[in-house]
Design brief:
Elements: H1 12-26, H2 31-69, H3 71-77, H4 88-103, H5 105-116, H6 122-141, H7 150-184, E1 188-192, E2 198-202, E3 211-214, E4 224-228, E5 231-234, H8 236-239, E6 245-247, E7 252-253, E8 258-259, E9 264-268, H9 276-322, H10 327-340, H11 344-370
Antiparallel strand pairs: 1-2, 1-3, 3-9, 4-7, 4-9, 5-6, 5-8
Helix pairs in contact: 1-2, 1-7, 1-9, 2-4, 2-7, 4-6, 4-7, 5-6, 6-7, 6-9, 6-10, 7-9, 7-11, 9-10, 9-11
Length: 371
């Protein structure tokens, strides 16, 4: 099974931050190399989205019978006598074991990764909750008196997988937009020399006031102003405008737009970070950074909840033992506290916030690319 601790809430940020930075640099320097690495990055995210989706649906399919076999759920629905049969607890254990190891694998490896780095966060909280529920409930199946908590384990895994699936889809959307932005810019431009000849130079060597010829069908290499000629320019990949825009002498053109039917001469206006495309790339990078800040807050909250789960759970066990309760009774109360400390809502709240905030920042870009 694949390792996931490098791609958990706390693990996405470095790779994506570097993706944003390298994409930004490739705008002026390393376009072809970045295109290749961007493709690999996109393929990696696509694989992870597919993997989370597959784990979610398998776990959801197994969770339904786990819920129906749970004595507590049966009691709530008034079906305790109807659904009882010999060996039901063992069947529930088998189904929950698959959910725990297959559906919960990303969180278990994430827990190990966070503990190795001494940075416990969301993965630690989730991994702790599902492990405590699984180990305790398994002990109950094989003889320990108590209540089965497999339904808590299964629903927690399903909710967390759904949250991560949503989050990874938003990450892939941002990565696709960033890669598409990088591919817009041509590597070279036809610069006019003082003698009137043309020379092909890297776009990064263009300076303000340089004169550049853009031939029919070529991409405008950089932001500037038309000084000679008349043509139509397709800016749909940049602005979402569906129809070509007429450009004549004195009109502004945007780097990355596709020239139409005639050659034009343009004067370079903005270069580097000042160009329209660079600013859009910066918007995507900031969207990814805001996502990382949201995850940092979530990880701090998860660390606090983990400490609370361990301390309050231990205190619960100690208090019940001190007041004279039996060990089995006290253990059940401790496990209950530790399991419910990991709220299901947190597994959806953070990914939804990330997805919405990322989408709101890149939706104008995506509308241009894919709409």
């Amino acid at each position: 099974m694949p390792e996931y601790h490098e791609h958990s809430h706390s693990g996405h940020r470095p790779a994506e931050h570097e993706q944003g930075e390298s994409a930004h640099q490739s705008h002026d320097h390393h376009q072809h190399r970045e295109h290749h690495s961007g493709h690999d990055h996109h393929s990696h995210h696509a694989h992870m989205v597919a993997d989370f989706r597959r784990r979610f649906w398998v776990s959801l399919a197994l969770t339904v019978p786990v819920l129906m076999l749970s004595p507590m759920i049966q009691g709530w629905l008034g079906l305790r006598q109807t659904l009882r049969f010999p060996g039901e607890s063992y069947l529930q254990w088998v189904l929950s074991t698959v959910v725990y190891f297959y559906g919960g694998w990303p969180f278990l490896t994430g827990l190990v990764g966070e503990l190795r780095k001494k940075t416990p966060g969301m993965m630690t909280l989730i991994g702790l909750a599902i492990t405590v529920a699984y180990v305790y409930s398994s002990a109950v199946v094989f003889g320990l008196p108590g209540e089965l908590l497999f339904w808590e384990l299964a629903t927690l895994v399903v909710v967390m997988l759904l949250g991560h699936w949503i989050e990874m889809k938003s990450v892939m959307g941002a990565s696709k937009a960033l890669e598409s932005l990088v591919r817009l810019m041509p590597a070279e431009a036809h610069r006019l020399t003082e003698s009137g000849d043309t020379e092909d130079v890297p776009v990064s060597e263009l300076r303000p006031a340089d004169k550049v010829i853009v031939k029919p069908g070529e991409k405008v290499p950089i932001d500037g102003r038309v000084t000679e000629g008349r043509t139509s320019v397709n800016e749909s990949m940049l602005t979402g405008e569906s129809k070509p825009v007429e450009k004549a002498e004195g009109d502004e053109v945007i780097g990355g737009a596709v020239n139409g039917e005639a050659s034009i001469t343009m004067e370079v206006g903005k270069t580097g970070d000042q160009t329209y495309l660079s600013q859009v790339i910066e918007m995507v990078r900031k969207a990814q950074q805001s996502r990382s800040r949201t995850q940092d807050v979530a990880n701090r909250a998860a660390l606090a909840l983990t400490i609370i789960a361990l301390s309050v759970g231990g205190a619960t066990l100690a208090v019940w033992l001190l007041v004279g309760a039996g060990f089995v009774f006290s253990l059940e109360r401790m496990v209950t506290v530790m399991v419910i400390t990991c709220p299901h809502a947190l597994g959806l709240a953070v990914p939804l916030v990330v997805a919405v905030s990322t989408a709101s920042n890149i939706s104008p870009i995506c509308n241009g690319f894919y709409g």
